[in-house]
Amino acid sequence: MREAYLFGPFRLLVHQRELFAHGVPIPVGQRAFDILLVLVSRHGHLVTKDELMAEVWPGVIVEENNIQVHISALRKVLGTDGDPKRYLVTVPGRGYRFVAPVKTESADHSAPSTAALAEQTAAAPGKVGSQQAGNNLPNQLTSLIGRETEVAEIKAELSNYRLVTLTGAGGVGKTRLAIEVGRSLLERYPDGVWFVELAPLTDAQLISPTIGAILGVSLGASSAPNTALAAALRTKQLLLILDNCEHVIEQAARIAEALIRVCAQMTILATSRERLAIAGEIVIQVPSLPTPQASASLSATGACKYAAVRLFVERANALGVGLILNDTNAPVIGSICRGLDGIPLAIELAVPRLRVFSVGELARGLEGRFRLLTGGNRTALPRQQTLYALIDWSYALLNDAEKLLLTLSLGLNLVGHSHVLWAELGLMQEHRHWVDRALGNVCNVTPPEAMARLLSWQAGDVREIDDPTEYEEAMRAVKLYRKVGDGFQEGRVLLRAGTSRLSLDTPEEAEGLLRKAQALLRPFGPTKTLAKCLSALASARLFAGDIAKAQKLHDEAIYIFRELGENI
Q1: CB-based contacts of 379: which residues, under 8 Å, 6+ apart?
Q2: Of residues 17, 424, 54, the one with CA closest to residue 214
Q3: Which of the ends of the chain has fewer CB neighbours closer than 10 A, N or C?
C-alpha cells in the first residue's frame, strides 16, 4: 500500500495521517484529511460529492455543506504555497479534482511489520467490492462481563443458520454482544465482518446505500438497490451485522431476505427489539444479567457469582470511586442490581451516582422511585421505564430553584460538552443549530464557564472557516476563562484563536496569540494541548520563512507527544 504522496512542498503520510509542508507538520482536521487523501489518491480524476460522502462519512447521513467547509479548510492549507488552485479545483455542481502532479513513495526505508499491517487493517474500513476485506467493528473500551453463555450460543447458531436475530429490551446489550461475537469470528469469514449501524437512519430506503458504502459497493442510480446489492455480493463469504433494525424493520427484513436468497455464503447477524419474521431466521432472546435474590445474608463470595454485580463493581472501580465488595455491602449492591433488572445500560448509568452517594443512599433512592412508578412490580420493568425512573429520581432530589437552573447549566452544558460527538459524526450544521439555540438561552445566571465553553466550541468548529466571528467568539471565551481563573482553558482557546489566524496574511498576529497560549499552557506540564500549540507555532515560523526555528518547535512538539505515549 502507498505510504506517502508528494505534491509541491507537501508530503501526505497515509498511515501516520499527517500533512507536512517543507518538512513541518500542518494542522489539518480529521475529516479534512480524509477528503484530501481521497482527492490526492485519485489525482487528475473528478471525485463527485456523493463519492466523497460515501468515503469520508460511510453509513452516516451528512449535509453537503460539511464538504464545503472542509474544502475551504484545505484551500487555506494549500494556499500557503501561493495559489491553492494549482492543487484543487471545483467542478461546479459535480465535485472536485486534484490537478497538481503527485508522486508516491514509501514513508520510510523499511517495510511495516506484520503486526502493524494487521493493526492498520483492523482500524481502517476495508472494501469488500475491491477485495480489501477486513472489518469495521467498533473498538470496545470496556470488558464484556457475564455473556460467555450467550456468545457461545450465538456462535453455534451462526454455524447452523444464515440469519440470526438478537432480540431483547433496549439497553440489554444486544449491540455489544453482536460486536463481540463478530470479533471472535473474523477468521471464519474470508471477506470480513462488517458492522452496519441503522439507528441514525430516518429513511428506510437508505439501508441498501448505507450497506453498499460500508462494503465498498457502488449501487449507482439503480431502481432496485436491494437486488443490485445482492448481485454485487453474490460470491462473498462474509458476516454482515445489521444493528438496531426495529425502527426500519420492514425494509431491513426485505434487504436481509434478498441477501440471504442470493448470497449463498453470506451470514447475517441482526439486532432488533423484534424479530425480522422472514424464512430461515433463528431468534435468540438476549436476557438481562443475572442478579441475586433478596437476602440480608448475601456474602461477597456469593454476590460475585452474579454478572450484574461483577459489572457494577468493575464499572465503579473504573470510575475511581474505590468500591470494594465485601460481606457488608454485598446485600446492598445486590439490591441495586436487582432493582435495575440486571440491565447493563441501567447499571452503567447508575454507577456514576456513587461519586455523590454511598451505595446505601443509591439503593434507597432507587427503591423508592421504582415503587412509585410500578406499584411494587419491579421485575417486569422495560428498559425505558427503568432508565426513566433513574433519571426522574435524580431530578426529584432538587428543589424548585435547582430544577429551573438545571433545565437552563443542563441544556447549555450538554451542548457545550457535545463538540466531540458532532465533530466525529460530521454534523456541523446540526451542531451549529444547537449551539445557536443554546446561546439564545443564555441569561444572567448562566455560569461564565458554561458561556465560555459554548463560545470556545463555536469558534473554529461550527463556524465556516473564513467566518470572522470564529476569531471574535474565541476571544470572548478567552476573556471569560481569564475571569474565572482557568489558565489552561484560556490557553487552549487562545491556541484556537491563533490557529484561525494562521495564514500568510496574518502570521505575526497568529504567532502573538500562540505565544500567549504557550505561556499559559507551559505551567501545566507536557500536555497534548501544549504539543499542538508548539506545532502551530512551528507552522507560524514556517510561514515567516524561518524553517530552522519551525523544525525546532516541531521537534519539541513531537517529543511531548511521544512522552505522552502517542505513536508519532
Answers
A1: 341
A2: 54
A3: N
For residue 251, the Cα-to-chain-centroid distance in whole angstroms is 26
What's the sign of the alpha-carbon dihedral 37, 41, 47, 51? negative
**How open is the CA angle 73-75-81, to the nearest 5 degrees?**
125
Sheet of 24-25, strands arranged across: 24-25, 18-21, 10-13, 4-7, 103-105
Q: What are phi and psi for residue 69, nearest 5 degrees?
A: -60, -45
Residue 143, φ and ψ in degrees, nearest 5: -80, 155
d(CA 236, CA 200): 26
Per cent of the chain over pLDDT 90 is 26
**β-bridge pairing 10-13 and 18-21:** antiparallel
Could you identify the residue written with the cell 520510510? 108
Q: What are the residues whose beta carbons fall under 8 Å from the beta carbon of 323, sequence distance 6 or more?
A: 313, 316, 317, 329, 354, 359
Q: Are 146 and 290 spatial neighbours (Cβ–Cβ below 8 Å)?
A: yes
- Measured on CA atoms in the order 518, 520, 525, 526, is the torsion positive or negative? negative
Question: Which residue type sits at 286?
Answer: V
How far, in Å, CA of 231 to CA of 244, rounded? 24
In this predicted structure, what is the pLDDT of residue 257? 95
Strand 46-48's sheet: what is its strand order?
46-48, 95-98, 88-91
Q: How many CA atoms lie within 13 A of 357 on its CB side?
A: 16
Contact between 213 and 58 (Cβ < 8 Å): yes
Residue-wise pLDDT for 417-448, tens only, equals 777 677 666 676 777 778 888 888 787 777 88
List the chain residues with pLDDT less than 70: 1-2, 24, 59-65, 80-85, 106-133, 220-222, 367-399, 404-409, 420, 423-426, 428, 457-470, 503-506, 567-568
